[in-house]
């Protein structure tokens, strides 16, 4: 093991997509056997997923924190927020759980405090934890912010906000409908619900009269504001006296750091939610470039990454392309990670040297046996529509193989779309091998459709259960004896799980009415999995409610002499 920087990287295998870590030569230092892997943090730990749970490893690949959490948020000040049994907790860098009870929410630590929230006496309230995981400021506020410069803004009651210190002492109070967005000793505020935003100082004196529909925090003497009252944005940049540095005529403005801002013009002025084309401006508001970029990152050490319709590359503070770093045609983004350049291209990660030489990319051929393999193909008729879909190679009958691959294309939703059409949404799709045994291959085909301006995308997934001998795609009924009432039996089992298992407490009351004869499902060696789409029986946050039914529980109705069962047993 050397001490080089390690980079998370994935391989597609017959056991699914597996993650590990490569060195700057593209060699695996930690073999890919995790279900997910993230970058190593400053404390030398990286969060990985194993057996459906998250834990943390060191640079030798050893678990320092056992994989037992549903979520681990990055470490901050030696602490991380985790989700355990559906509740938020705090752990230290050894994995010890510091909180005696779980909460509805815990933020990352800042200035030795973490914001915490939960329902107290039928009301949702906020407070703060210390680094030992103890309540140091009681859960008593209607809203709250993270600490900054040793201060936080909390809502005490209607039309009453306060600045508090780390011990909960009130340093000042403000009697307005809203106070927040602290920066540079100024606070955004509004007097009434429908009123505009302005800025007050720490004593409550009005420094900039309310006239904005959006008022973001000040950073180094500048703040982004919006004056629009309809869907057409009018963003500008002001100084601490309220004077415009950049006039409020733009669809978007982002502060990038290093005294630089990105100024955006709407791609379509009638549909501003479709996004912007950006120019780079300096701190005085002077434009350094034309409106060339579809995306701009923040500056880090004098470098930012940009993307246009053709390529992604790096720029310096003057807005010119940075010397000595590559431009990648067709990439969505590039970033400097250690000694390498990480490239994101159609939701796939690869790494280049800083001279542009390919170091590593994910495989597109997945061997199953000496005969069978799955090929990853890409369909990209439009910049906003990208699908990676599977094709199977090696079936004995060429006719059967063609029919199977035609069906897989249909299930992967390969729509005909004009390359120059301005879509109102983005669509991305991919696949994983979730099970392979004997003649049965199970493929998960997943996608996410996001309409621009929506709160979130809408994910979907379907499972193809394919017999590699005859090319048949199996349905749920194929698993069971024909005369069996499999729908009734499975419906009863799922109903009992919802009633008795706390993990299904999120199911909407009355939403579950039994399974359908063609209920979405998949299998592995010993379990049947039945699942529902988001919102079907539970909230969006619940994802795809899934019910695991061991085959041993339903052997009496399984057709153990049937083709489906014998394809993998």
Give structural notes.
The protein has 569 residues and is mainly beta. Among the domains are: 176-281, no CATH class; 293-363, Beta Barrel (Thrombin, subunit H), CATH 2.40.10; 366-566, Fervidobacterium nodosum Rt17-B1 like (Heat Shock Protein 90, 2-Layer Sandwich), CATH 3.30.565.40. Helix content is 6%, strand content 45%. A six-stranded mixed β-sheet has the order 38-39-40-41-42-43, with helices on one face. Strand 4 (36-37) and strand 5 (46-50) form a beta hairpin. The mean pLDDT is 95. InterPro entries: DUF3298, PdaC/RsiV-like_sf, WG_beta_rep.
Low-confidence stretches: none
Assembly category: single chain
Q: What CATH architecture label of the domain at 366-566 applies?
A: 2-Layer Sandwich
CATH overall fold name of the domain at 366-566 = Heat Shock Protein 90
Q: Report the C-alpha radius of gyration, rounded.
A: 27 Å
Structural class: mainly beta
CATH superfamily of the domain at 366-566: Fervidobacterium nodosum Rt17-B1 like
Number of helices: 3
Side by side, the strands of the main sheet go 38-39-40-41-42-43
Organism: Anaerobacillus arseniciselenatis
Pfam family, one: WG_beta_rep
Domain DUF3298: 477-552
Protein name: DUF3298 domain-containing protein
């Amino acid at each position: 093991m050397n001490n080089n920087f390690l980079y998370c990287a994935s391989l597609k295998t017959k056991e699914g997509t597996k993650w590990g870590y490569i060195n700057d030569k593209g060699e695996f230092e930690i073999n890919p056997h995790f279900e997910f892997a993230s970058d190593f943090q400053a404390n030398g730990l990286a969060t990985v997923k194993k057996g459906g749970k998250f834990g943390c490893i060191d640079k030798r690949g050893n678990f320092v924190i056992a994989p037992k959490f549903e979520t681990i948020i990055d470490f901050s000040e030696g602490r991380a927020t985790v989700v355990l049994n559906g509740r938020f907790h705090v752990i230290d860098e050894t994995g010890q759980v510091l909180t005696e009870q779980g909460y509805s929410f815990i933020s990352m630590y800042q200035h030795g405090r973490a914001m915490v929230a939960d329902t107290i006496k039928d009301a949702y309230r906020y407070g703060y934890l210390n680094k030992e995981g103890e309540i140091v400021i009681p859960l008593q506020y209607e809203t709250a912010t993270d600490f900054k410069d040793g201060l936080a803004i909390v809502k005490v009651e209607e039309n009453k906000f306060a600045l508090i210190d780390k011990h909960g002492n009130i340093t000042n109070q403000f009697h307005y409908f809203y106070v927040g967005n602290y920066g540079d000793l100024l606070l955004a505020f509004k007097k009434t619900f429908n009123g505009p935003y302005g800025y007050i100082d720490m004593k409550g004196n009005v420094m900039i009269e309310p006239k904005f529909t959006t008022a973001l925090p000040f950073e180094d003497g500048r703040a982004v504001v919006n004056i629009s009252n309809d869907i057409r944005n009018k963003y500008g940049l002001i100084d601490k006296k309220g004077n415009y540095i950049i006039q409020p005529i733009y669809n978007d403005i982002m502060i990038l750091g290093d005294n630089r801002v990105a100024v955006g013009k709407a791609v379509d002025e009638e549909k501003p939610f479709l996004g912007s084309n950006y120019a780079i401006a300096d701190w005085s508001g002077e434009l350094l470039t034309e409106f060339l970029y579809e995306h701009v990152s923040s500056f880090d050490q004098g470098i930012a990454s940009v993307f246009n319709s053709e390529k992604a590359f790096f720029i310096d503070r003057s807005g010119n392309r940075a010397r000595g770093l590559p431009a990648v045609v067709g990439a969505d983004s590039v970033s400097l990670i250690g000694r390498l350049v990480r490239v994101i291209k159609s939701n796939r990660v690869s790494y280049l040297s800083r001279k542009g030489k390919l170091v590593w990319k994910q495989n597109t051929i997945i061997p199953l046996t000496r005969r069978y393999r799955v090929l990853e193909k890409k369909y990209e008729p439009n910049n906003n529509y990208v699908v990676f879909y599977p094709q199977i190679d090696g079936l004995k009958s060429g006719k059967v193989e063609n029919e199977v691959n035609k069906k897989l294309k249909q299930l992967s939703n390969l729509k005909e779309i004009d390359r120059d059409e301005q879509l109102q949404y983005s669509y991305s799709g991919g696949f994983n091998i979730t099970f392979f045994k004997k003649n049965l291959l199970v493929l998960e085909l997943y996608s996410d459709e996001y309409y621009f301006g929506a709160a979130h995308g809408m994910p979907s997934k379907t499972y193809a259960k394919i017999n590699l001998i005859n090319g048949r795609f199996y349905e749920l009924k194929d698993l069971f004896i024909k005369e069996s009432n499999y729908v009734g039996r499975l419906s009863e089992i799922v109903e009992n799980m919802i009633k008795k298992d706390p993990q299904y407490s999120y199911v909407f009351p009355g939403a579950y009415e039994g399974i359908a004869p063609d209920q979405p499902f998949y299998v592995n060696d010993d379990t049947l999995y039945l699942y529902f789409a988001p919102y079907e029986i539970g909230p969006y946050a619940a994802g795809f409610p899934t019910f695991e039914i061991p085959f041993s529980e339903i052997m009496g109705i399984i057709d153990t002499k049937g083709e489906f069962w014998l394809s993998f047993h």
